[in-house]
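Hey L., structure's done. Input below.
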Amino acid sequence: MGPAGSGKSTYCATVMTHCQSVGRSVHLMNLDPAAEKFEYEPTIDIRDLITLEDVMEELQYGPNGGLIYCLEFLLNDMDWLEEELGEYEDDYLIIDCPGQIELYTHFPIMRRICDCLQRLNFRICGVYLLESQFIQDKSKFFAGVLSATSAMISLEIPHINLLSKMDLLGKVKKKELERYFDPDPLLLEEEANTSTNPKFHDLNRAIVQLIDDYNMVSFLPLNITDEDSVAAVMSHIDNALQFGEDQEPKEPLDEFDE
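Output:
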């Protein structure tokens, strides 16, 4: 399963390029009915079934309500998706998902889509993107940690969290970055104690305790301009998917074969 979060389309294009460069059969599947442009044309596209623009125009829904309607429409017509997926059951699919976090934390829609895909024997890995610039505002960063935690609990699938846009991050000491890759709740407590109203300190301590108790979220750095960074992320995703374990080993080419 592909990413939710900021920069998801850029991430999808980067992964598509990487997979093609290493000779992997890969297809883009778009589940965002509001998407407009793609660097790679989707092989499977929810917009062939329904688009947010049409729903907003015909039903007079707003963007958020229209998006939920589109995905519920898909859930009620999973035969369409199953037919679309039929030719690609042995291939690697990059699924571009809507970016609205509510779909992963407040509503069971994406969970039901995941359940349907698993019933079709697809192995799924969720990828959550959080911009690395959030570490410059500890409150925003830990809001992202909580959202990632909520999504992981809601979806109950193998899950990878990424700090994206590392190439745009200013200079930060490696030792300091490690406190964000494996979120150190004390970072939030230190910030809360110095910059928030004392009446919120108990709440902040409760949030710190929640993050510490669950201890579910860790981040991998992603720099899309660094091939080694992309390859490392893909390796973790492959491991989560157990990708390739069922494939037959290829016969080595004879040195005289062309």
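The longest strand covers residues 126-131. Strands lie at 3-5, 26-30, 44-45, 92-96, 126-131, 159-164, 220-221.

-- N.
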